[in-house]
Amino acid sequence: MSRIKGRPSKYQKSLQNDENWKEVKRKVKIRDKHQCRICGEKIGLDVHHITYFVDGETIRGQELEHLQWLITVCRKDHKIIHKNPNHPLNPRNRLKQNGETYKSVS
């Protein structure tokens, strides 16, 4: 059975009261000037994991040490990233770019 569209996943729910994640989001959004790094949108922003693993180890819960692997994106672009496995910010893309060096083509 698939997840109901628009309903937070268990992972998303686990982050809602996580003080570490709140600090991660704050730092990433400050770095990205509180705007989507793809289109420049300033509302409806998410912090996206470009990868969940570095050197074979999970970064979940340790994101403060790996801020380069997170990026601020609007919800529209977040969906586009996850639907396109070749997107340079998709976690499944072997040639993914990190959040500090990514330059939008738009």
Overview of this structure, please?
- The structure is a single chain.
- It contains three helices and four strands; from the N terminus they run ααββββα.
- It is an alpha+beta fold and 106 residues long.
- It has a domain at 36-106.
- Strands 1-4 form a two-stranded antiparallel sheet. A two-stranded antiparallel ribbon has the order 2-3.
- β2 (53-54) and β3 form a beta hairpin.
- The longest helix is centred in the N-terminal third of the chain and has 13 residues, at 19-31.
- It is globular and about 30 Å long.
- 21% of the residues are buried.
- The mean pLDDT is 88.
- Write the element-wise H/E pattern from the N-terminal end onward: HHEEEEH
Distance between termini?
37 Å
Global geometry: globular
Average pLDDT number? 88
**Helix percentage range:** 25-40%
Domain HNH nuclease: 23-79
Organism: Chryseobacterium potabilaquae
Protein name: HNH nuclease domain-containing protein
Region (Disordered): 82-106
What layout of secondary structure does this protein have?
Blueprint: H1 10-15, H2 19-31, E1 45-49, E2 53-54, E3 57-58, E4 70-74, H3 75-83
Antiparallel strand pairs: 1-4, 2-3
Protein name: HNH nuclease domain-containing protein
InterPro entries: HNH_nuc
Region (Disordered): 82-106
